[in-house]
Write a structure and sequence with these properties.
Distance between the termini: 13 Å
Shape: elongated
Structural class: alpha/beta
Number of helices: 8
Helix content: 25-40%
Strand order of the largest sheet: 2-1-8-9-10
């Protein structure tokens, strides 16, 4: 039997399968913002993740908007569960895939509530195309030091031999901790997408990239890579 893979995403993972050890490497902390931006009317509300939906729900009734666009089918389902009708959701689960398919009329105003650590690509590209974009930082990822320490101990004890990084920040936090501990355990790396992969590579490790940029896609890629059913 192969050792376990450490899953680092912040969302819950309910399983008795010993293949997986769920240890989130980041915690999310809410942020305050200038609520005057909610008094405007917007053409589009863009929600890039379930966390963006979750943290924005208390403010949703205060915002006037015409249409909703989301990134990811899970984000779409989470919206629909909370009575938010989704008008646009591309098949690709990345900012690049969203931008490739998303279109809007000249002069459109777009509101993006998201993480402080979100890549700026979405906001910058929409502005370059002529949209009036307002982006607010709803929450920020904070290093979960206790879980990272536990993961390092699992690797040292060979109770785990793989880590699946669900974000660039989780990978960066982990490798910074390895440098502090001054150890280099041997383990397999898995990345949810290209930006996370590049962070892993920057730190001297290789990684297998998920075929689909979702947690389910990451798990399926790991199973295929390790010949698991």
């Amino acid at each position: 039997m192969s050792a376990s893979v450490i899953m680092t995403q912040s969302s819950a993972m309910h399983t008795e399968d010993q293949t997986w050890i769920h240890l989130p490497f980041i915690k999310l902390e809410p942020l305050s913002f200038d609520e005057s931006v909610l008094k405007r009317s917007y053409t589009w509300l863009v929600l890039s993740s379930k966390n963006a939906v979750r943290y924005f729900l208390p403010y949703l009734s205060q915002l006037s908007y015409q249409k909703v666009a989301v990134i990811g089918k899970k984000t779409q389902r989470f919206c629909e569960q909370h009575g938010i009708e989704v008008d646009f959701c591309p098949d690709d689960f990345s900012q690049e895939g969203f931008l490739d398919k998303f279109s809007f009329e000249n002069g459109a105003s777009i509101f993006i509530p998201s993480s402080k650590a979100a890549r700026p690509l979405l906001e910058e590209e929409l502005k370059e195309r002529g949209a009036d974009v307002v982006k607010i930082d709803l929450y920020e990822p904070v290093e979960h030091q206790q879980n990272i320490h536990e993961a390092i101990e699992l690797l040292k004890n060979r109770s785990a031999d793989g880590i699946a990084f669900a974000s660039s920040s989780s990978a960066e936090n982990f490798f910074n901790a390895l440098k502090r501990y001054r150890i280099q355990p041997i383990f397999e790396c898995y990345a949810i997408g290209q930006p996370t992969y590049e962070t892993v590579r920057k730190n001297g490790y290789d990684a297998v990239i998920a075929q689909k940029q979702t947690i389910d896609g990451l798990i399926n890629t790991i199973k295929e890579s390790r010949n698991l059913k």
